[in-house]
Amino acid sequence: MKGREVLIGVTGGIAAYKTADLVSRLVQAGAGVTVVMTDCATKLVGPKTFEALTGRPVGLEVFGPGAHPHIEAARRAEVLCVAPATANLLAKAACGLADDLLSTILLSFSGPILLAPAMNAQMWAKPAVQRNLAQLAADGFTILAPEEGRLSCGEFGPGRMASPETILHAIQHALNNKDVAR
């Protein structure tokens, strides 16, 4: 991971707190990490947390610093991982919508994209969510299936975001496969 560039997208799921652990592990492994957060994500984990972990500013606005923040971030990274990926983000990505910095980056990024969904079990089971996941898989996104367990709402079922360790291994795998493809 030393010297590799990873872009982490964070959406507004309660599992966003686990993403801080993932980012810390990536940085400790020597990766350069840039974090982009949706507005809803900032209500759960403050951008300063990710800035402290990465030593880099967090992307928050489409019209933020730089001429084209979405293109600049997409060009710099080798792998993009969204963790957690909410039902909203999955729907926007499946339809190609781009109304915030993260969704515009998803459209402008040409490397491997990993999505780690996290949501309530009833949301996960909805046909619309499953249809969006199928479309994203067909479009070449890697879906890191959620785990089954106790959810933040108190229910038990599928919907827990994959563990930071599982996501880290998936990012390493994507980087290794990228090297083989060169």
What does this entry show, briefly?
This protein has 182 residues and is an alpha/beta fold.
Explained architecture:
By secondary structure, the protein is of the alpha/beta class. It is built from eight helices and seven strands; from the N terminus they run βαβααβααβααβββα. It has helices at 16-28, 47-54, 69-76, 87-95, 101-108, 121-125, 127-138, 164-181; strands at residues 5-10, 32-37, 79-85, 113-117, 142-143, 147-150, 156-160. The strands form two sheets. A five-stranded parallel sheet has the order 2-1-3-4-5, with helices on both faces. It has a two-stranded antiparallel ribbon with strand order 6-7. Helix 1 (16-28) packs across helix 8. The chain starts with a strand and ends with a helix. The mean pLDDT is 92.
Descriptive labels:
182 residues; alpha/beta; five-stranded parallel β-sheet; 8 helices; 7 strands
**N-to-C SSE series?**
EHEHHEHHEHHEEEH
Helix proportion of residues, in percent? 40-55%
Low-confidence stretches: none
Distance between the termini: 17 Å
- Widest sheet, order of strands: 2-1-3-4-5
Task: List the quaternary state of the chains.
Answer: single chain
What percent strand? 15-25%
SS field, number of helical segments: 8
The count of β-strands is: 7
Helix-strand makeup class:
alpha/beta
C-alpha-based Rg, rounded: 15 Å
The general outline is globular
Largest sheet: 5 strands, parallel
Average pLDDT confidence is 92
